[in-house]
Amino acid sequence: MQHPARGPRRRRLFQAVTALAVTALSLLPAAPAAQAADPSGPVTGPGGKCLDDAGASTANGNPVQLYDCNGTAAQTWTAGADRALRVFGKCLTVPGSSTAPGTKVVLYDCDTRYAPVVLPPQEWVAGPNGSIVNLGSMLCLDSTNGSTANGNPIQIWPCNGTASQTWNLPGTPPPGGAPLSMNAIPAQSATAGVATGFRPAAAGGTGKYQWSATGLPAGVSMNYIDGTTMGAPTATGSSTATVTVTDDAGASASRTFTWTVNAPQTATSWYVDCSAAANGPGTQAAPWNSLATAGAHVFQPGDQLLLKSGSTCNGQLAPQGNGTATAPIRLGSYGTGAKPVINGGGLQDAAVKLTNQSYWIVENLEVTNSAPTEALRSGINAYYTDGRPHAGITIRNNDVHDVTGWSRRDAPAGSDQATQSLYLNNYYLSHGIGVDTPVRGSLVQGLAIVDNHVHDLRGVGVGIYGDQAHGNNNEERHQNVRVAGNTVNDISQDAVVISVSDAPLAEFNTADHLGAVGSGVFAGIWGWGDTNPTFQYNEVSRILRTTDDSTAWDCDGYLRGTCTYQYNYEHDNAGGIITQCTGCGGSEATRIVFRQNVSVNDCRIHQQGNAGHLASFLFHNNVIDCRNKAFDLQETPANTVMADNVFYGPAGATLPAGLQYKANTYVGFTAPASDPQGSTADPKLVDANGTAPYGIRSVGGYQLLTGSPALGSGTPVLGNRGKDYWGNPVNPAAPHRGAFGGAGLATPVRTDDSAAGIGYTGAWSTGGGVHSTTAPGASAAFTFAGSTLSLFGSQGTGGAIASVSIDGGPAVDVNLYAPSTSTGQRVYTSPQLPSGTHTVTLTHTGRTDPRAVGATVALDGYAVS
């Protein structure tokens, strides 16, 4: 996405190039650019010998060899923060940017045109099993023919984990030294509903870390990149949590601790009923009858400001006061019936506004702010202008709609600068729900925006923004930010934008039918000016094309570290899959990782505004199903790697040359000649058609059957890949192609919903070949023998939310809502289970998607592999 301060998009030459984003390849030490801080010493390798500059020559093109270690300057290498390996100030280089196995490496002048990094033929990273991987070729540093003889030349060769590719870099521990360890995690204490978080720490090991956790309180999640653990706990009680860190070599360390969630301390409850005839003292018996009265009161820690359910209040609610970590202030509802309505009435501000406040929970409200003409308007907004840190903001379970914000990004032709700035500012800062820090130094430590429905408005659905006047790039970034479970539909532009946040997490959000009105540049769910943002388990669909972008995802300007998209499902978006626009602002070193996602009918990858700013892009283990339209891969930079994906396209489809293709499967496509392991063989999907309806749990048809040529035929150079789309661990030594990482599945055996072994409890009816129920708590239970289960059912506007529990384990929600009706759809597929007999229970939760107009759970049968 183009940032508002940047004006119309155009190609810009930014003097920065980043290294390849390799999820599990360790970057060389990320010290400051000053060479004095970079570790120096020998690079030891096969046979205990050293990487050596032949003849100690400084001539360009001089060969590099293996030789007895002798401590001379010709063997004193500096491992740079720019990922270069230097000796005598020259760089270890793959000549001619070659990607051919057997190319002999040489010394050459370091290419520093794009400082603080060098170009990919001179970039080297530590890979698994002691390997050193060249980022230009994705091949490993190798002693030719495996020889350890003095003078043996050094080459690049496909990574194979053998002794000829085992090296030790300066500044890294020798094999067997500095084992991976994690610092102890003290017992954690939190308050239900209060956004909080912490970050664990580890040391030692090999390469980069990936983090995971079990037993976290409900409402709390972890960012896999750095272990930041964040959220607003939803229930009280104590649990035993375990945090695990894993390095590139597969070593792991864990810490177990207790996490206690306490009920919030309460003080006074204050009541508002705007339909009351008289303005009382704020008790339930004699409530206030205006938002102005509530806004004049200064609330104390533990207070509650409660609006009467079913009532409507007009104007702005801007309450005062601050809570504490144990005694937040809650703005919510009382009584029964529909959510209370706050109608801003076209106010050119937010209908509900917090200003420079901490420890508030805003929940269970319906908020509107409609007007005949567009202007800068929002529904709910937390606004920070005092240049100080704040904490503990939770905005949850609200219905925000009909906000007439600003939907036109570009001012009319010929407008002056002030008018252009007005359009841009209003376009990006009109929110359904927003958190804005226009004054630098302002930030929120603990921010949770969860389970809201934002719809039918003009503006951004959920937006977190910083200082617009200076590139929306606040140095002081929000911490412990989780945006989760929100449904955003039928709005003019972006569904979720997270800016100026440190390791934010956006997960389980749904965005559908964006761009119905307005004109501008937008995407579904994306980030700007963040550090290590992660976007996972989200679904984006039916974006309408406007003037640009219109992609599901976007890694944009001023991002630092790694921008990750994983375990997402997107389909039927006019603009396609993802926009890369890291060059749309700043020159930060940005890595993009796009892994284990499923894409259907989204056939475009859009590189925008990145000329000269070649942000690295690792696109691996995805399924891209474009059988119904041409694939459009635009302007993707030369240091993009596409590895271990399964591509489907119409017959005769092609992909552009110039990228690094590694072990992909191309069905319908002509395999690129540059992919040495490219395959056009049928990958043998569980569902040969691969058809997927709505819902992130509906794509089990893209798993692989036993005998699939995609099993185990990926490239192991990528190292630790965590888990696959369905939660199965991925074997880094023999990875598959596509988003599935488990054992190949037997052909599923289908059982009908009327089978005698299914026990129905509660009010179920039959008809149309399915069992269906609208009764909360009604369930269907059965046992099955196998390792993987898929459930089939009906979806539509009347679909409810069911839960699935296997062997008494945690229940998983299955959303049966869809904008159109379909039957016999695969709606859920389990992770792989231990082979044997298992018991599954499907239950009507009594909850529905906020868009649903009914509440039906329908079971059409199941299949077992």
Descriptive labels:
single chain; 865 residues; mainly beta; 15-stranded parallel beta sheet; 13-stranded parallel beta sheet; 2 helices; 73 strands; 2% helix; disordered N terminus
Topology:
Elements: E1 40-41, E2 50-53, E3 64-67, E4 77-79, E5 85-87, E6 90-93, E7 106-108, E8 124-126, E9 132-134, E10 140-143, E11 152-157, E12 181-182, E13 188-191, E14 196-198, E15 202-203, E16 210-214, E17 220-222, E18 229-231, E19 237-246, E20 252-262, E21 269-272, H1 291-296, E22 298-299, E23 304-308, E24 312-314, E25 320-321, E26 329-334, E27 341-343, E28 350-355, E29 360-363, E30 366-369, E31 378-383, E32 389-396, E33 399-403, H2 417-429, E34 431-436, E35 443-450, E36 453-457, E37 460-465, E38 478-484, E39 487-491, E40 496-499, E41 501-502, E42 505-507, E43 510-514, E44 521-522, E45 525-528, E46 534-536, E47 539-541, E48 548-549, E49 553-555, E50 561-566, E51 569-571, E52 578-580, E53 590-595, E54 598-600, E55 604-607, E56 616-620, E57 623-625, E58 632-634, E59 640-643, E60 646-653, E61 660-662, E62 665-669, E63 749-752, E64 759-761, E65 765-767, E66 770-773, E67 779-786, E68 789-795, E69 800-806, E70 812-815, E71 822-829, E72 836-848, E73 857-864
Parallel strand pairs: 13-20, 21-23, 22-25, 23-26, 24-27, 26-29, 27-30, 28-31, 29-32, 30-33, 31-34, 32-35, 33-36, 34-37, 35-38, 36-39, 37-40, 38-41, 38-42, 39-43, 40-45, 42-46, 43-47, 44-48, 45-49, 46-50, 47-51, 49-52, 50-53, 51-54, 52-55, 53-56, 54-57, 55-58, 56-59, 57-60, 59-61, 60-62
Antiparallel strand pairs: 1-4, 2-3, 3-11, 4-5, 5-6, 6-7, 8-9, 10-11, 12-15, 14-18, 16-19, 17-18, 19-20, 63-73, 64-67, 65-66, 66-73, 67-72, 68-71, 68-73, 69-70, 69-72
